[in-house]
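Researcher: We plan to redesign the surface later, but first we want a full-length starting point. C-alpha cells attached.
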C-alpha cells in the first residue's frame, strides 16, 4: 500500500479504537475527496457506512456516487451503503422560507450541505460511527471552500493535510473508479452541476501554488496575480470558517463587581 495511505489508515484505526466506536460514516458525492476518504476508512477493516444523499442531483454526480459505492462494497466486506433521498425534505424546507428562494441561491445550496450533515450524524450515532470529513488542505485551510456546519461538521479529517493534487494521486493508487478520477471536481450543491473551478475562478493546482506563494507579487504574470488575488479574497472572506468561534471574554473585575 502507498505509505501515505498506510499512515492515514493507521491513524484512523487508532482514533476509532481510542474513541470506542465501531467505525466510520461518509457521505459519498461522486467526487474524488469522498471517494478517497471512504476507501481509506474501508481499509481500516472497521465498519464503514456510505450514504448517498441526493438532492436534485445531476445524473452524472449520482451515477458516479453509485458506481463508487458498488465498487467499494465489492472490494470490502466491512462496507455497507444506504441511499437516503433528501429532495422532498429539502423542498419542504424551501417552501416555508420567508423569502424568494431564487434570490438566495447560495444560502439554499449551503442548506443542502447542512441537511446532509444532520443525516450523517443521525445515522452515524445510531450505528456508533464517526463522521469522516472529506475536505482537503486547500478547501479546509486555503480558500474555505466548504459549508460551515455542513460538510465542515465532522468528527475526523483524514485527508485535510493533502492538496487536491495529492488527493487525486492517492485515489489513483488505491484504484478509485476511473469515472471519478477523470471528472471535474464539484461540490454537488448546484442543480446545474457547476464545477469548483466555475465557482472559484481558478484550478486546484493554481490555488495550491497561491497557498504556498511567499515571493514578490510584482514579478508575477498577469494570470498569477489574478490567481493570487482570487486565493487571498476567498481566504480572507472565509477565515471565520477556519478559526475558533469568537468568545466574548468578560473581564474579571466586571464579574467580581456583581
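Model: Full-length starting sequence:
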Amino acid at each position: 500500500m502507498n505509505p501515505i495511505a498506510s499512515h492515514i489508515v493507521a491513524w484512523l484505526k487508532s482514533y476509532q479504537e481510542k474513541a470506542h466506536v465501531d467505525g466510520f460514516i461518509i457521505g459519498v458525492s461522486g467526487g474524488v475527496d469522498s471517494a478517497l476518504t471512504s476507501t481509506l476508512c474501508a481499509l481500516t477493516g472497521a465498519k464503514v457506512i456510505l450514504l448517498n444523499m441526493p438532492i436534485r442531483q445531476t445524473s452524472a454526480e449520482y451515477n458516479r456516487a453509485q458506481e463508487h459505492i458498488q465498487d467499494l462494497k465489492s472490494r470490502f466486506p466491512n462496507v455497507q451503503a444506504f441511499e437516503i433521498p433528501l429532495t422532498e425534505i429539502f423542498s419542504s424546507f424551501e417552501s416555508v422560507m420567508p423569502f424568494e428562494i431564487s434570490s438566495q441561491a447560495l444560502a439554499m445550496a449551503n442548506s443542502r450541505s447542512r441537511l446532509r450533515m444532520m443525516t450523517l450524524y443521525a445515522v452515524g450515532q445510531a450505528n456508533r460511527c464517526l463522521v469522516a470529513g472529506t475536505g482537503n488542505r486547500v478547501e479546509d485551510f486555503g480558500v474555505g471552500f466548504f459549508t460551515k456546519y455542513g460538510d465542515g461538521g465532522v468528527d475526523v479529517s483524514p485527508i485535510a493535510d493533502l492538496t487536491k493534487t495529492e488527493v487525486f494521486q492517492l485515489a489513483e493508487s488505491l484504484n478509485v473508479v476511473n469515472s471519478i478520477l477523470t471528472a471535474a471536481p464539484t461540490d454537488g450543491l448546484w442543480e446545474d452541476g457547476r464545477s469548483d473551478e466555475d465557482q472559484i475562478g481558478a484550478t486546484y493546482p493554481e490555488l495550491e501554488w497561491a497557498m504556498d506563494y511567499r515571493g514578490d507579487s510584482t514579478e508575477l504574470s498577469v494570470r498569477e496575480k489574478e490567481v493570487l488575488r482570487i486565493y487571498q479574497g476567498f481566504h480572507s472572506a472565509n477565515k471565520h470558517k477556519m478559526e475558533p468561534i469568537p468568545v466574548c471574554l468578560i473581564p474579571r473585575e466586571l464579574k467580581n463587581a456583581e
